[in-house]
Amino acid sequence: MNLAVIPARGGSKRIPRKNIKNFCGKPMIAWSIQAALASNCFDKVIVSTDDLEIADIAEQYGASIPFIRPATLSDDYTGTTAVVRHAIDSLNSMGEDYALTACIYATAPFVSGLLLKEAMSRLTNHVSDFVFSVTEFSYPIQRALRINSSGRVEMMNPEYGSSRSQDLEPAYHDAGQFYVGKTASWGTKGVLSTDSLPFVLPNYRVQDIDTPDDWKRAELMFRALQASGEL
């Protein structure tokens, strides 16, 4: 059996009520719930939240709310792994056991059922603890600049000062959309480790949504993808 956990606490600061704010016609969290359900990979899709309004909206879109997340796991400092592990352990105490568990962020409108299905297939077909979404930095990080204490510009890696961009090794970062893994590995293995496999997404399907500017950019990207038939 497979489980999908969507963490969604109510205390968003920079974009108030971000998880249920209207995004291109639906509450933001609805896109993640519907992608998880559309993948047909999961025996149960739950939302872990401390907020009754989020819980109500999540249920309207097909997610289960088997518990209300305790306040001790709903502050600004609790990491995703602890929230997912709590969900696994809570369901286990109810007699439910899952072999694979996915974490899908509530603010990941670009995720789709097909992407989740492909990621789950990669996990089951390879020796790996986790598969998670990554994307390539749009500019070589080896040529990054810093502003020093004198207000001057200097290269962080001056040895690459004369290197051509196309000659530098590509670098990637966590795309912040989903992590699928063996249930036993959540909390015992690090997600960002050599025991994990990357699921590479194109830049145009990745956007952090932490500020109002991020939100506007994400909506424009989302509508463009819908118009092109990619969503």
Automatic annotation (TrEMBL):
Provide this UniProt record's keywords sorted from A to Z: Nucleotidyltransferase, Transferase
Entry GO MF terms: N-acylneuraminate cytidylyltransferase activity
Q: What is this protein called?
A: Pseudaminic acid cytidylyltransferase
The scientific name of the source species is Aliidiomarina taiwanensis
Record-linked Pfam families: CTP_transf_3
